[in-house]
Amino acid sequence: MTQEPLWQPSDIQTQDGVEKEADGDAPKRRGRIPQSAWPSILERYRAGATLSAIAREFI
């Protein structure tokens, strides 16, 4: 006995009933961390701060 999947990829549509375009065509988004912040990030990381603690400042 074969079981049908609960959903098909074609079931995922926007509100208008049109499938979304693939994100592959969208331009890549740069991070929010300014280039000038990297030296202090490296210094804190080398001093023992965790990446998650450092990242919380940029949310």
What are the defining features of this structure?
59 residues, mainly alpha, elongated
Structural commentary:
- This protein has 59 residues and is mainly alpha-helical.
- The chain has a domain at 33-59.
- It is 24% helix and 0% strand.
- The chain contains two helices and no strands.
- The termini are far apart.
Summarize, please:
With 59 residues, the protein is mainly α.
The proportion of strand residues reads under 5%
Low-confidence stretches: none
Shape: elongated
Main sheet? Answer: none
Helix content range = 10-25%
Q: Structural class, from secondary structure content?
A: mainly alpha
Number of strands: 0
Instruction: Round the mean pLDDT to the nearest integer and report it.
Output: 75
Rg value: 21 Å
Amino-to-carboxy terminus distance: 50 Å
Could you outline the blueprint of secondary structure elements for this entry?
Elements: H1 38-46, H2 51-55
